[in-house]
Each structure stands twice: as C-alpha cells, then as structure tokens.
Amino acid sequence: MTIDTKALGFGDVARSAYACDPWASRGRLHREQGSLTRSDFQRDRDRIIHTTAFRRLKHKTQVFIAQDGDHYRTRLTHTIEVAQVARALARALRLDEDLAEGVALVHDFGHTPFGHTGEDALHEKMRDFGGFDHNAQSLRIVTKLERRYAEYDGINLTWETLEGLVKHNGPLLCKDSSGKTKPVPQPILDYSARHDLWLDTYASLEAQVAAIADDIAYNTHDIDDGLRSGFLTFEMLEEVPFLKDLMREVSGRYPGLEEARFTNEIMRRQITAMVEDVIGVAQANLADIRPESADAVRHAGRTIACFSDGMAEVDRQIKTLLFKRIYRHPDIMAIREGAGQIVSDLFDVYLSDPQLMGSHPWIDGLEKLEEGQLARHVADYLAGMTDTYAYNTHRRLFDHTPELR
C-alpha cells in the first residue's frame, strides 16, 4: 500500500511568516530520515508523549500531594492544561501548533518529586556540584536519560523543540540588573556546545506562547484546587479586584448557583480573559515589529507573547494571593519540610552507597566515578522518582519517614 502524500494536506496549514516551519527545521543532533505522514514537530510531540518521563508526571506533585485526593492537579494534568492553552494561542496567532504543544508537554519533565520543594532540596545537595535546575534536567532527560532508541540516547528532538525547552522564559546568556551575566546550568551549556541553541536570543513565538500558557494554567487551576482544599475561600478571592469582578458577574447572571458550578464559571472566564489579553498584546507587538521570519522573532529583543500591563498586574496579584494563602500556609510548609527531608535523606544514602540505586541504568561503574559525577547520577535518579516511589523508598531505607498530610 502506498501513501498519497499530496492528499495529506500538509501544505494547507495557514502559518504566518514568523511561525517556525517544520519543513525547514534546523534538524536533529542525530540525522534521521523524515516521515511521510508527520512533520518533524508532530514527531517531536509524539515522542514526548510516549516517554517514561511523561508517564511519571501523573504521580508528581503540582501543589497538593496525591494523598490529599484524586481531584487535585498533578504535573501531568497541569501539563495537559498548559498544552491546551498553548495550542489555542498558537492557532490564534497562526503559529505551528504542534511545536507549541510539544514545548508545553515537555516543559516540566525535569521536576523532582514533591514539586518545587524537592527541587530546592536537591539543589541544596547539588550546590557543590553545579546545582540542580529542573529546566536543565528536562534537557538531560530528552537528550540523554531516556533510553528508547537503538542508535542514540535521548529522543533526538528537533533544534526548535529543544530551543523552546531551554529558552521559553527568555534568553539565557543575558545580564541581570547589576550588569552581570546570569549563570547558565552546565547541562545546557554542554549540550549547546554540541548543538548550538542560540542561548543569547529569545525563543520562537511557539515557545513563548507555551511559557505564558504555563502562567495562565497554574494561576487558574491553583485557585480551583485551593478552593477545593479549603485553603482558599471566595471571600479571599475578593482580595484581587479582577477576581472579585468575575464573581460579581457570575453571581449576577446565575444567582444561587451551586459552589462547583460557580467556581468553574469563574475559572473559565479567567482563562478566556487572560488568553484574549495575550493574543491582543502579541498581535500589537507583531504589528510593531513586523517580523518576516521565525529568526526575526528570536532577534526582536523582547518577548512578543506576554500580558498587557493591566493583566500583568492581575497576574502579580493572583500570585501574591496564592503565595499568601496556599504556598506559604503553615500546613503546606510543614508538608514541604517533610518532603524536603525525604529528598535530602535519599540523596545522602545513595551518594554513600550507589548500589542502593538498583534500577539505575548506569549502576555498573558508578563506584569509579568522581564525587561530582556520582552526585549528578544520584540527582538524575532522584529527579526521576514519583512522589509515591520516593516516599515508599524512604520508608524502606529509614526507620522514620515524615507524614506528608
């Protein structure tokens, strides 16, 4: 059976001049033959979904640990929501939707168990060995740690997807407010030395919409989860005028609405307002810059897909509310302390006895490594753990394990 490639309609996609072209990709580190039925960016997205790292996200904390209930977001459900928003933004701006979705799907691969708490603990343990950064760890996973293909380690993603992964929040080789160049995690520098990711430029517009989609998604669903948990109340939401106005609108249109429906009506309006704000700002910036290629976006000198000043203030107020009422709540802080202890304890025991990492793919020869190299392997192993696996492993190796409730 032969395939009529002309009938597939690849050329019918109405991408803008400033969108990334999957048929003109800068390619992969390891050259491969193209697909008859999928673009390179479609293949990237599909490879990401089929990884072990993607499946592990279902048992990694977003804000609330899995023991708190089945209805709270995990890293996986958060990632899917980010991908949906990114794809909507990409379609509105006539970008490559597959690339935007792929960057969104891979952006949290490097997160440790127990969310940012685990990352903070692991970074502290790795401080003398280059530190730990979840973004750099995501790159290590897709370029080295996933072992699925016969000819190479990693999943051999395109330059554009990897660029979006490491630079979706902006250039890495840039100066801070004091004029000093910000440090770049060594794993990113090492890979870029082999496959130059242009660390001094902005990322594609597809990566930019994935980044802002992350903000939109977690601002919204952390409020939803916060209300479900009881850490937030509707009265607390009134601290943010934008949310207060949304609640007034919903109450006026649907008086006496049950709580679950009331919450959803607020959240859907919040997402719509933020998405439409980003589209409007991006369109205005594009009209001002008039980029004629994806590279022109990279060299524009500023982020194109972002909030307006007014919505940026709303974003700041929502984050302030979430930090005050949830992230820094005494109950959450107590859980974070216990989770950090679990990660720290596991790091110490694996560093002292690497053979305890019995399922680590590079277990042979670890005893011959220098301390820094061994520490990096331990960090790889720990970062790959799910919350459940880390908790149960700690219980097996230690006499006392903190209760995470």
Taking the alpha carbons of the first and last residues, their distance comes to 57 Å
Using the CA coordinates, give the radius of gyration.
22 Å
- Please report the total strand number as a whole number: 0
- What structural class is derived from the secondary structure elements? mainly alpha
Reported for the largest beta sheet, the result is: none
| Order of SSEs | HHHHHHHHHHHHHHHHH
In the predicted model, the low-confidence regions spanning at least 5 consecutive residues are none
Helix content: 55-70%
* Helix segment tally: 17
Write down the overall mean pLDDT.
91
Range of strand content: under 5%
Family: Belongs to the dGTPase family. Type 2 subfamily.
Protein name: Deoxyguanosinetriphosphate triphosphohydrolase-like protein
Domain HD: 75-219
Pfam families: HD, HD_assoc
Task: Characterise the protein shown here.
With 405 residues, this protein is mainly alpha-helical. The chain has helices spanning 40-49, 52-56, 75-92, 97-106, 115-125, 134-145, 159-167, 186-194, 205-229, 234-237, 241-253, 259-289, 294-298, 309-327, 330-352, 371-383, 387-397. It has a domain at 205-330. Helix content is 56%, strand content 0%. α6 crosses α8, α9 (205-229) crosses α14 (309-327) and α15 (330-352) packs across α17. The radius of gyration is 22 Å and the shape is globular. The model has no long low-confidence stretch (mean pLDDT 91).
